[in-house]
Design brief:
Number of strands: 5
Organism: Leptospira ellinghausenii
InterPro entries: DUF4325
Number of helices: 3
Helix content: 55-70%
Largest sheet: 3 strands, parallel
Shape: globular
Radius of gyration: 13 Å
Low-confidence stretches: none
Mean pLDDT: 91
Order of helices and strands: EEHEEHEH
Strand content: 15-25%
Pfam family, one: DUF4325
Structural class: alpha/beta
Protein name: DUF4325 domain-containing protein
């Protein structure tokens, strides 16, 4: 399709590995279609590490750094959210390299 799709979440707190997995499967389908995805986190106040791991870190490990950085953009209002996402990706990458 090669569109830019905006993905946003209801509520202000993102938690649970199960919800993260559901959202990751949606993202994977969009990426397989060739779409770019903008993830809108402006209304999000907190993200649990389990959600961030299941959605962002697992996705990063599946699609690789190049696809992740070229196809996914974030809109955030809090650097704390960026830190949780970055930490989750870094932790998963370190686990895989051991």
């Amino acid at each position: 399709m090669n569109e830019t799709v905006r993905l946003s979440f209801s509520g202000t707190d993102l938690s649970s590995r199960t919800y993260g997995q559901e959202q990751r499967l949606i993202l994977e389908k969009l990426l397989q279609n060739g779409d770019k995805v903008t993830i809108d986190l402006r209304n999000i106040e907190s993200i649990s590490h389990s959600f961030a791991d299941e959605l962002f870190a697992v996705l990063y490990s599946k699609v690789g750094e190049k696809t992740f950085s070229e196809k996914i953009n974030f809109i955030v209002k809090s650097e704390d959210l960026v830190q949780v996402i970055s930490d989750s990706i870094r932790y998963r990458c370190n686990l895989q390299s051991v």
